[in-house]
């Protein structure tokens, strides 16, 4: 088992160690929840203030042109693209993850009119499943949504399935699907694949084009550090873009929105997948998070992510043996994202006790304690200290207090 000296040596040799200074992290807090909400880049406050005070306050509506507000969805899409192995013209930042999932699903139904099933795995993130159910309900029987166990996904692919919607890194366990193998298996059966990258974009290398992916969506507020409710992104492979009429045919997806025509004419390429007016303040914040990645290499991020997660597993299992923790994430790092989950029958109050002591993770039923490791600002010593505090909480039974058992609205 690694010692504290070993851990400090790892931090001293870390090529990403200087990136921690680019984030505002409260003193005394070990933040292990970047898989839910990323920390704030230090540049974000000044950037948003400039948008509010100068661009909005002084330039007013002229900012759509003079400060390039109208171009932000494509500009930010171009900054997401290298993180997910896409061309800049295949990604646009717009709307929310849920809306972009609906766009992708409805596009697949158009592209595969002879097929009626949209498929996903049981236990997928709820918004994905709910969007499938909503689309099926709105179709009047044309579309059927179907869920199968993870191990049955490939066998469920047949000539009735139009689209497979799958999350690369599972939100509860961090289980990492093999993007290349699943995409190939689906496309061999004529099935289009939509990848949800919410828990993987910015945390590990992704190469959508190398996998011949069809569609992908992701949010901006987890590992991309764009702020609460940051805009999402959608990837549409170039070969599909001009073949569909968007179901959500919003004004800004029109070829010439300022013609104010009564007839919708979709814009060429990825722009037709824009719908609503861009949220300028939120996009400004997200751009601060994306700009940090220009100075990094995803291989460095992934290498450190694996080391942090492995260290956490090692320390918890060695120092808390007999305290009722069971690893819920894959032990094999090649099939694990940038988070580690343990189950415990008292998981919720234990997480609350940790938060009270400055170690921030989160909880998901049933009994899952989630810890996300963002390599840009989490150190190896953070991991060591977090387990030290967890060990103390368990040894002293500090978690077993009434206020730690009281459920909050957000867990």
TrEMBL record:
Keyword Endoplasmic reticulum: no
Sequence positions bearing N6-(pyridoxal phosphate)lysine: 222
Binding residues for pyridoxal 5'-phosphate: 97-98, 167, 196, 199, 221, 251
Reported cofactor(s): pyridoxal 5'-phosphate
GO MF annotations in UniProt: kynureninase activity; pyridoxal phosphate binding
Biological process terms in GO annotation: anthranilate metabolic process; L-kynurenine catabolic process; L-tryptophan catabolic process to kynurenine; NAD+ biosynthetic process; quinolinate biosynthetic process
Gene Ontology terms: cellular component: cytoplasm
Pathway stated in the Swiss-Prot or TrEMBL entry: Amino-acid degradation; L-kynurenine degradation; L-alanine and anthranilate from L-kynurenine: step 1/1; Cofactor biosynthesis; NAD(+) biosynthesis; quinolinate from L-kynurenine: step 2/3
Cited HAMAP family: Kynureninase
Function: Catalyzes the cleavage of L-kynurenine (L-Kyn) and L-3-hydroxykynurenine (L-3OHKyn) into anthranilic acid (AA) and 3-hydroxyanthranilic acid (3-OHAA), respectively.
Subunit structure: Homodimer.
Protein name per UniProt: Kynureninase
Species of provenance: Maricaulis virginensis
Chain's gene name: kynU
